[in-house]
């Protein structure tokens, strides 16, 4: 069989399966425990965080592991909204985002937030001009995906990030689930505050994702305790 649906999900590499199996069998300890198995698990977790940070050119402390893109997007969007609502309750996104962004924004509207959905052109591309016109004094977040999962459209993230540097009180979230490993980006240089990844899109295990959060950004937690 020839598999041609890598845009939806990728088969895990055999070496990934081997590493995951080894981790499940040998590093099963609670990383918060002080015994040997706990320390071994903590060291493996630190190593994973270090490798992830190197790939994204950020600090290990800026890496948050999630269950995938949906959790990462919800944690970023709702986390910013509830944490910074004292600054304002206006959020900007586009009309062609992944449902985990689009529906999260819609859910926030039911909590009294105002969401602007930017239109796109024939190719599914958002214009910097439309974003500039949508900015308001109460805008706290802009969330735009890097590569569209349905169309393959590459959004002008670098230009948008450069513009948003002029508005330091507005945080910039990028869903890079579809682009990581395929279309280059630079989180720091492009002014991205929050970045979402999902391992199943680049031959990794299912149920594993990353939310990279710039140092200094605080998120209201989705879940309490644990």
TrEMBL record:
Keyword entries, A-Z: Iron, Iron-sulfur, Metal-binding, Pyridoxal phosphate
Domain Aminotransferase class V residue range list: 2-226
Record keyword Glycoprotein present: no
The protein, known as: Cysteine desulfurase
Cofactors required: pyridoxal 5'-phosphate
Family from the record: Belongs to the class-V pyridoxal-phosphate-dependent aminotransferase family. NifS/IscS subfamily.
PROSITE patterns: AA_TRANSFER_CLASS_5 (PS00595)
Lineage top rank: taxon: Bacteria
Coiled coil segments of this chain: none
Native species: Brevibacillus fluminis
MF GO annotations: cysteine desulfurase activity; iron-sulfur cluster binding; metal ion binding
